[in-house]
Amino acid sequence: MQREEQEIQRMDGSVHHIVPSFFICPISLQIMKDPVTISTGMTFDRESIQKWLFSYKNIACPITKQPLSDFRLTPNSNLRRLIQSWHLQHASSSTTKFAEPNHDSLMKLLLEEIKQPHLQITGNYTTVIAEAVSLLCLLSPSDEALKMVSQKENGLLICSLCSIMTRYLSNLQLRIQAALVLKSIFEVVDDIYKEGLKFEFFENIIEILKDQNSKHGSMAVLAILIRVLSYGKNKEKAIKGGCIPILIELLAEENERHVCEMMLVVLEKLCQKAEGRAAFLSHPAGMAAVVSKILKVSHVGDDKSISLLSRVLRFCTSSGEAAQEFMEVGGMTKICLVIQSGCNSKTKEKAREILGFHFKTWNKSPCFPSSFKA
């Protein structure tokens, strides 16, 4: 029988409640009474870490082994409230067992912390929010639980996390963590909850993309865009927010396969709109950045690159400048190589279509491969 908290039934009828692993102090291996966080981001029981640092004169983090220059202990009030709530739920039980938990009920407690309206008017609200979102990133709730909680109250959690990303502009780490949670949410919620995202939301996730010190943040943002762009007016908002030029600049410098694939998927989606194609063509490095990834990333990268270029060149048949630029950056050579390569048949068909868009212009150019001339 499934329970919100895991339990172990002993033969004598007594119950062992399983303690969530992050309630346990890494030093004492006991449930924390007064959790505090040190400068490395690790959390310990106050008494244990004080002994470690000040009685035993250790100067490195017990977990990361990183030397500490800042010995301040920051109370983790959110985690403390969770531990207290857990204790109250299991006050009748005399025994516990330390193991990995079912996190669903703990997630619900955290979500309530994020949505507490009375905290929004206090000076501690930012701290509480940061703690709650940080802990949410550590949990691994089931898809069913995440979907249920996220869709509750007409998607209040989604609205709260989006608000965090547009409100706490000076706290990049908090916004990145909110993006990581939203990534997981958008993978499981119904389509209706992906519509109606505000323009400011797209502006601010683009700011996360710009910060190349956070690969996890960038990946989360790209995953969010892939999930939500097909709904409502999200494409228009992302284009207006400046998504395309940022992606072009990042794509030109990126070599990691999966990241390139995600960027190309997003760009291809945005270029389904006329304003997206206009933004792509207006960037001086747009054509070159995409062409450079053909036959260098993966079959997925090839397909998305060819599809993107097909959309752009199909809808600018009256513009000789785009065709000329495409040829100058080696586009025709790459297209011909794709047709002759081991790419899948659909990708090859899109490549052949590109050949026909400006064939008369390209056929007269010495840059056009002679084997394809009429």
UniProtKB/TrEMBL annotation:
GO biological process, one term: protein ubiquitination
GO terms, molecular function: ubiquitin protein ligase activity
Protein keywords: Transferase, Ubl conjugation pathway
Residues in U-box domain copies: 18-93
InterPro entries found in the cross-reference section: ARM-like, ARM-type_fold, ARM_PUB, PUB22/23/24-like, RING-Ubox_PUB, Ubox_domain, Znf_RING/FYVE/PHD
Function: Functions as an E3 ubiquitin ligase.
PANTHER family xrefs: U-BOX DOMAIN-CONTAINING PROTEIN (PTHR22849:SF164), WDSAM1 PROTEIN (PTHR22849)
Protein name: U-box domain-containing protein
Species this protein is from: Populus euphratica
Gene: LOC105135416
